[in-house]
Design goal:
alpha/beta; globular; 208 residues; eight-stranded mixed β-sheet; binds NADP nicotinamide-adenine-dinucleotide phosphate; single chain; oxidoreductase activity; 11 helices; Rossmann fold
Length: 208
């Protein structure tokens, strides 16, 4: 599997590390260009390459988008159209600027990113702190294995993303559609920023 990652900050770099560790080919990008990622790529080692965001979008079989929500309109839409895209982004108005649609909850940040890119979007990796994603993976059956909520409207795309989650040492729990399910694991929900196992996460998502 070749994974494009757009955004090489806390989350993008943590995921690049984990994906490379399990042998995925990783194409890592940011907004300033591949030349600014040389040190990080060397430090991570393994099958990671620095590329432009457009190349990560075009060449990734699945693409992780992990940038501040407020910059989502800068994403290269054309190469992402129809592709499995994992959205880790959260809306923080103090960082992103106010989005009236999100302030009024008429839609969600993931649906807005989906509308911009027309990607086959799956929301995941948005609830756990970057350090937990980087260091918190555990083998299947380990009592300390944590779970990650996944929402999206395409079952096949969700299955692909659930596989990525399992491969780096977490369980995936289906939260539902992008709209209804996605709202259950946004900032401010009971599951947000909580270290939960699959049973605990599933129970809380059902109660939302
Ligand atoms: N930090 C966490 O623990 C955490 C947890 C869950 C979810 N999240 C969410 O995940 C997203 C990423 O968070 P983060 O903490 O990793 O952010 P971050 O450390 O600030 O990194 C953001 C990255 O996005 C890149 N970027 C910005 N605009 C871009 C564009 N138009 N094209 C390509 N790359 C672009 C930046 O590149 P440049 O530096 O070159 O501009 C940087 O590499 C956010 O939406 C955040 O709310 C964060």
């Amino acid at each position: 599997m070749r994974i494009g990652i757009i955004g090489a900050g806390n989350i993008g770099s943590a995921l690049a590390r984990r994906f490379a560790r399990v042998g995925y080919e990783v194409l890592l990008s940011n907004s300033r260009g591949p030349q600014t990622l040389t040190g990080l790529v060397q430090e991570i080692g393994g099958p990671v390459r620095a590329v432009t965001a457009a190349e990560a979008a075009a060449s990734g079989e699945a693409v992780v988008v992990s940038i501040p929500y407020g910059r989502h309109r800068e994403l290269p839409a054309e190469p992402l159209r129809g592709k499995v895209v994992v959205d880790t982004c959260n809306y923080y108005p103090e960082r992103d600027g106010h989005d009236p649609d999100l302030d009024e909850d008429t839609t969600t940040s993931s649906e807005k990113i989906k509308a911009h890119t027309e990607a086959n979007l799956v929301k995941a990796f948005n609830t756990l702190p970057a350090a937990t994603l980087r260091d918190g993976g555990r083998p299947k059956g380990d009592p300390g294995r944590l779970a990650i909520p996944v929402s999206g409207s395409d079952e096949e795309a969700k299955a692909v993303v659930a596989g990525l989650i399992r491969d780096i040492g977490f369980d995936a729990v289906d939260a539902g559609t992008l709209s209804q399910g996605g709202r259950k694991h946004q900032p401010g929900t009971k599951v947000y920023a909580q270290a939960l196992n699959a049973a605990e996460l599933d129970a809380l998502l059902r109660a939302e």
